[in-house]
From TrEMBL:
Transcription recorded as keyword: yes
Species annotation: Pseudomonas syringae pv. cerasicola
Highest rank taxon of the organism: Bacteria
Classification via InterPro entries: LTTR, LysR_subst-bd
SUPFAM superfamilies: Periplasmic binding protein-like II
One MF annotation (Gene Ontology) recorded for this entry: DNA binding
Domain LysR substrate-binding, chain residue ranges per copy: 7-190
NCBIfam families, alphabetized: PRK03635.1
Entry keyword set: DNA-binding, Transcription, Transcription regulation
PANTHER family tied to this protein: HTH-TYPE TRANSCRIPTIONAL REGULATOR ARGP (PTHR30579:SF2), TRANSCRIPTIONAL REGULATOR (PTHR30579)
The protein's name: LysR substrate-binding domain-containing protein
């Protein structure tokens, strides 16, 4: 599963289920764009990722989407965007990227019309990612679920409030994974909407 889900909605969504069924989890963290490789290798019973197409012998189910917003600290904005934020000056300022498989910032800039590369830090920690943005080290796309307190307090500010990006999350599981996996799948389908937003059809 992706680190941002683990840092935000996953535990409250499945905590009661795991307690009720005495279920112990062995979680593997991968970027949402590459998580299916573990299922292809037969290493995991289920996978939460951004790809809709299941591997052979598995099913996929859309749970919803995580909404990401482009954020920076007030000090970073004052230094890099004194005359306002534009796609061009976003691309010229340091960004935060989770890891080499994380293409979310690339896709976001492409949506703004920026096709070239950009300078960035690599930070393979969901919590550390937010801390580095707060410290003014760069701008980044952060899950809305994870930064509500910072947005309320003003320690983080949105760069382009009208330009969020939604990342779909699909739950993949083996067709013959057993009764407990089926029950977990049904539980996730029922409760994930408490945290995830509907995926736009655009």
């Amino acid at each position: 599963m992706n680190a941002d889900s683990l840092a935000t909605w996953w535990a409250p969504a499945i905590g009661a289920f795991c307690t009720q069924h005495r279920l112990l989890l062995d979680l593997v963290v991968e970027d949402q764009d590459v998580g299916l490789k573990r299922m292809r290798a037969g290493e995991v019973a289920a996978c939460l990722c951004g790809s809709e197409r299941p591997v052979a012998g598995a099913r996929s189910q859309l749970l919803g989407a995580m909404r990401y917003r482009a954020l920076a600290s007030p000090s970073f904005i004052a230094r890099h965007f004194p005359h306002g934020v534009s796609p061009a000056n976003l691309a010229r300022s340091a960004a935060l990227v989770y890891g080499p498989d994380d293409l979310l910032q690339h896709r976001y800039l492409a949506l703004l019309g920026v096709q070239d590369g950009f300078e960035h830090h690599l930070c393979p920690s969901s919590e550390g990612f937010i801390r580095m943005i707060e410290a003014g080290m760069g701008w980044g796309l952060a899950p809305e679920l994870q930064v509500r307190d910072q947005l309320r307090s003003g320690t983080l500010l949105e760069l382009l409030p009208e330009r969020c990006i939604d990342v779909p999350l699909y739950w993949h599981h083996w067709r013959n994974g057993g009764q407990l996996l089926t029950q977990l799948t049904e539980h996730l389908a029922q409760h994930s909407a408490d945290w995830l937003v509907p995926l736009s059809e655009e």
